[in-house]
Amino acid sequence: MSQKIIRSFLAAMAIFVICRNGEAQNLIPFKGSLREANVTLTKMLDGQSESLIVGNGDLYGIVWEKDSSLFMRITKNDIWDARIDVSQDGEMPKVDIATGKTTGQVGGPPSYRKTYPQPRCAAALHLGPISSAKGFSANLDIEKAFVSIKSADAKNTTIRILHDRNVLLINSPYAVTLEEIKAETLPAATLGKQRYFLVINENACDIDYKGMDYALAVASKGNLKAVSLVTSFDIKTGDVLDHAIGLARQQLLKMKNSYLAT
After folding, report:
1. CA terminus-to-terminus distance, the chain
2. Residue 159 CA to chain centroid, in angstroms?
């Protein structure tokens, strides 16, 4: 009898510990500090000093006002032009210690002067007209990765990046369009012309780097928009474009007001 009681007690304690751990994992640490770190701006005229940055640790973007429009650039950690082109490099410099004479390429080989390897911005988003006139305010809630932009004309915009998937949610009366980030050293993007605005960009490759693809898709329903970003490192099979379209559509169907609630 005593053994049954002991086993029951241990089982109850195990369930209690598991439940408590589950609750602890759902708690957000340092909520007070996060609230104190929130940012509010009354103008967003400069992408360097008057802008808001939002992200989930992998997908991230910066939003500001550009040419009287709300403008955003987004990218992911794995979007790189990772080529290393040493095809024009010659012999490494050598110094004869006895004579002090240097032979080989002095001043760095040609590969040092190329713009790559470097991280790449994925794309730019145009989110509709905006003006930092009287009554304008923009707020960043760091805890929720949530940006709220309010203007005098009451045509407000909210932006949120989901924590568990690379999707940007937008609530705005204006259409969202994608703009290619051009680079002379990379192929041009392929732009879709249908309901979904699409971008694909493929890195040229070298013998050691096979390159990568990425795609963005925008799905819209009324004021609600879902922007997805998928890279070839995210998927094992299939096409990045198909995955991006599917992810944007899927998230738009699941979208609820709570996603964009402050």
Report:
1. 55
2. 12
